[in-house]
Amino acid sequence: MTAGRMVMTDLLKPEEIKKALDAFAAETFDPKKFFEMVGMKAMSAENVKKVFQVLDVDGSGFIEEEELKFVLKGFSNEGRDLTDAETKAFLTAADKDGDGKIGIDEFETLVHE
């Protein structure tokens, strides 16, 4: 039995998501700063991994580059798409093993670094 798919507002406060999205609306996206603004840095590793699962749209266990481009949409429908440069920078920051995608442990490390 599956309980419907978890949504970001089950894990994070909508007003903090909005504030963080607004902060990066016209500014270069900084994943670490964004995760801190939405309250993820203060979360347990377990809850950060739940956020990862919401962002892992295809359920592959990884956030691939094409999912990364739309990562802000995972936080809110109002989130903008990342630019190619922002997507690559995010991937570079998080992809410690160089496989071209972000695993759940790499994601948790990036958030809590």
UniProtKB/TrEMBL annotation:
GO terms for cellular component: cytoplasm. Ca(2+) 1 binds at residues 56, 58, 60, 62, 67, 99, 101, 106. It comes from the Eukaryota. InterPro entries: EF-hand-dom_pair, EF_Hand_1_Ca_BS, EF_hand_dom, Parvalbumin. GO terms for molecular function: calcium ion binding. Keywords: Calcium, Metal-binding, Muscle protein, Repeat. Residues 43-78, 82-113 form the EF-hand domain. SUPFAM superfamilies: EF-hand. Ca(2+) 2 binds at residues 95, 97. Belongs to the parvalbumin family. In muscle, parvalbumin is thought to be involved in relaxation after contraction. It binds two calcium ions. This is Parvalbumin. It comes from Cyprinodon variegatus.
